[in-house]
């Protein structure tokens, strides 16, 4: 039985692509105007505009959502294994289209090495979910209840239409980390990435169109805040990744509609280095965790607390290693730190550095934004003389900056790490992994790397929640991720003809 009013649009083979003349509905109240203006999109490497945002009109988005809703029941009726086959076919198509996707991502982000890693992680996630989801979605047998003649048969129904809204720092990874389990669960999905990095949409859509069963339930749209807001107004569940302020706006809009929202927001991840830690190991891990993607990751290490007895040694080692990490310029394929993607973020980084320098911080290495051939770069920056009165210690910087502060006792280290509105992830280093685990248990963060850093960049198997203002909703990682897109049902089956004793006596 259909569980929503009969849809009026005919089921298309594939969902229409907005911007491709899909709109046919009545055009009132600005319905024919794009939901966001044709904003210039800049390429961070030459630092110039090379693309114009093509947001859908209200009518086009409505048509897309309608088509996805029409296709969803058949998608959900397919067996989990059949949906898994479509995910594998999409992974294959993404690999065939890999060079186009990577070229678009290079223009979106200025990154080559990291974009290849991102694509590989996305393809691996498709294959992993295809392998795991059927086992997780298997039908559960009926079990007896406390009432002898009533059995309980557990079932689950997918949310019909899921909206995925993602940020600019890891465009496909942070779109598909939620879209894939939603599709595996049986939902239709609309993905709207950031207006800062929209070019990969066309390349990924071309790959999806090679898998008609999947293209019918997966829409991708370019757009900014206007399109995002219209999407929140159109879907049944929102999976949002982005900043705390936008997350609040999205949560308010979702609350108004009484639809669930999963928020994955900002972070200010601490690393704690205990007195007995292996400093060679810790500095290598923290350097990567704080400067990969030029620090433009929610899970970057953004502040480091080191036992006072090892502070000078730690800073020296970290700075020596940091000075050896070059810029991904002129050849981005050779690795090193790429450009700052969003010009607005470069402004925030500059403000945090200025604030720290004014209050007495010192850059042991790096420390100055550089303009090179139009791009804006920052070499790995190690700051000393920092304290929690500085923005660089308390607000999300999103740059390759490692401010290092000494602590005297573990209690002090925990208090400093906890002095933050964020609780995304963290890292703890100690000679004894179990001692580090015990210290980690005192931290309010969803994923804590022990004797390593920022592991959730590459490892998505462990279930975790975002703590404090870093987000709300179920785990986006591990098997529990699937459950976010399912509504549990209990089919309560009355066996036999016995009359329930609480019925009216007739
Ligand atoms: P942002 O909040 O500015 O934008 C995120 C997305 O929201 C974009 O697609 C944007 O177009 C959309 N949007 C804007 N206004 C909207 C509205 N009113 N309704 C619906 N959608 C709207 O974030 P950003 O600058 O793109 O990304 C950086 C932020 O994302 C950082 O704070 C970072 O920590 C966070 N982030 C979090 C995670 C995580 O997993 N927790 C991962 C990566 C990035």
From TrEMBL:
It holds the Pfam family Aldedh. Residues 1-49 are annotated as: Disordered. Residues 7-19 have a biased composition (Low complexity). The active site is at 264. It comes from the Bacteria. InterPro entries: Ald_DH/histidinol_DH, Ald_DH_C, Ald_DH_CS_GLU, Ald_DH_N, Aldehyde_DH_dom. This is Aldehyde dehydrogenase family protein. Belongs to the aldehyde dehydrogenase family. It comes from Yinghuangia soli. One of its GO terms (molecular function) is oxidoreductase activity, acting on the aldehyde or oxo group of donors, NAD or NADP as acceptor. Residues 38-489 form the Aldehyde dehydrogenase domain. SUPFAM superfamilies: ALDH-like. Gene3D superfamilies: Aldehyde Dehydrogenase, Chain A, domain 1, Aldehyde Dehydrogenase, Chain A, domain 2. PANTHER family: ALDEHYDE DEHYDROGENASE-RELATED. Keywords: Oxidoreductase.
């Amino acid at each position: 039985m259909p569980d929503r009013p009969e849809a009026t649009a005919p089921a298309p083979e594939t969902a229409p692509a907005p911007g491709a003349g899909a709109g046919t509905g009545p055009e009132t109240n600005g319905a024919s105007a794009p939901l966001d203006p044709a904003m210039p999109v800049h390429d961070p490497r030459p630092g110039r505009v090379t693309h114009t945002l093509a947001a859908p009109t209200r009518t086009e988005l409505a048509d897309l959502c309608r088509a996805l809703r029409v296709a969803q029941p058949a998608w959900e009726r397919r067996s989990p294994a059949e949906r898994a086959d479509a995910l594998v076919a999409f992974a294959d198509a993404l690999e065939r289209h890999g060079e186009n996707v990577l070229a678009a991502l290079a223009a979106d982000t200025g990154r080559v090495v990291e974009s290849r890693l991102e694509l590989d992680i996305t393809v691996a996630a498709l294959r992993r979910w295809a392998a795991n989801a059927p086992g997780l979605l298997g039908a559960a047998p009926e079990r007896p209840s406390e009432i002898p003649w009533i059995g309980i048969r557990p079932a689950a129904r997918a949310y019909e239409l899921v909206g995925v809204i993602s940020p600019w720092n890891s465009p496909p990874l942070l779109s598909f980390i939620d879209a894939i389990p939603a599709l595996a669960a049986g939902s239709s999905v609309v993905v709207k990435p950031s207006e800062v990095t929209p070019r990969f949409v066309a390349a990924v859509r071309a790959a999806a169109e090679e898998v008609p069963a999947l293209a019918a339930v997966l829409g991708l749209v370019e757009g900014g805040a206007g399109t995002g807001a219209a999407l929140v107004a159109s879907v049944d569940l929102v999976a949002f990744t982005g900043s705390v302020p936008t997350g609040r706006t999205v949560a308010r809009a979702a609350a108004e509609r009484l639809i669930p929202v999963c928020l994955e927001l900002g972070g200010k991840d601490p690393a704690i280095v205990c007195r007995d830690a292996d400093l060679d190991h810790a500095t290598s891990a923290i350097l990567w965790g704080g400067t990969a993607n030029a620090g433009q990751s929610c899970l970057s290490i953004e502040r480091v607390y080191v036992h006072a007895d090892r502070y000078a040694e730690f800073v020296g080692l970290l700075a020596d290693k940091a000075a050896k990490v070059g810029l991904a310029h002129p050849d981005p394929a050779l690795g090193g730190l790429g450009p700052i993607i969003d010009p607005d973020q470069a402004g925030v980084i500059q403000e945090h550095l200025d604030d720290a320098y004014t209050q007495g911080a010192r850059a042991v290495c790096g420390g100055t934004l550089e303009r090179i051939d139009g791009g804006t770069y920052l070499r790995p920056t190690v700051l000393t003389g920092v304290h929690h009165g500085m923005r660089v210690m308390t607000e999300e910087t999103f740059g390759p900056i490692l401010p290092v502060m000494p602590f005297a006792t573990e209690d002090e280290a925990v208090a400093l790490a906890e002095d933050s509105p964020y609780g995304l992830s963290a890292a703890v280093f100690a000679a004894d992994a179990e001692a580090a685990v015990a210290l980690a248990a005192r931290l309010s963060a969803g994923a804590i790397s022990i004797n390593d850093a920022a592991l959730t960049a590459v490892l998505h198997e462990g279930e975790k929640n975002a703590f404090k203002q870093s987000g709300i909703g179920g785990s986006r990682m591990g098997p529990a991720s699937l459950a976010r897109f399912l509504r549990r049902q209990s089919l309560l089956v009355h066996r036999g003809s016995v009359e329930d004793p609480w019925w009216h006596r007739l």
